[in-house]
Amino acid sequence: THSIGLAFVAYPMALTLMPFGNFFGAIFFFCLLVAGISSSISIIEAFTAAIMDKFGAEREKVVTIICVIAFLCSIIFTSQAGLHWISILDHFI
Q1: How far apart are CA 42 and CA 40, in angstroms?
Q2: By three-state DSSP, how is residue 73 classified?
Q3: Alpha carbon distance 22, 28 (integer Å)
Q4: Measured in Å, how far apart are the chain's first and last C-alpha atoms?
């Protein structure tokens, strides 16, 4: 929980003390959303390009398969032990 504590606990608490804190909080979390989506796209693009070059597969099928696999693998993070799994992966990756 230490790695996500700054972004999801400490910073929002600091924003509540600021004037217009709700506005800046909304901007902050929108920026986190955009950063997450753009990071996901770049990671998926790297896998897609490698698989297309290696096997000559169609882009739409490769992207669909990669996204479905990533979704299924990420379901574990929504469990009660999700924060523990994030800490474990953060440590090893």
Answers
A1: 5
A2: helix
A3: 10
A4: 16
> What percent of the chain has a predicted confidence (pLDDT) above 70?
97
CA angle (36 as vertex; 73, 82 as ends), nearest 5: 40
pTM for this model (two decimals): 0.74
Query: What distance in Å separates the CA atoms of residue 26 and residue 78, rounded to the nearest whole number?
Result: 23
Give the tens place of pLDDT for each residue, 45-72: 999 999 999 999 999 999 999 999 999 9
CA 33 to chain centre: 8
Per-residue HEC secondary structure of 26-84 comes to HHHHHHHHHHHHHHHHHHHHHHHHHHHHHHCCCHHHHHHHHHHHHHHHHHHHHCCCHHH
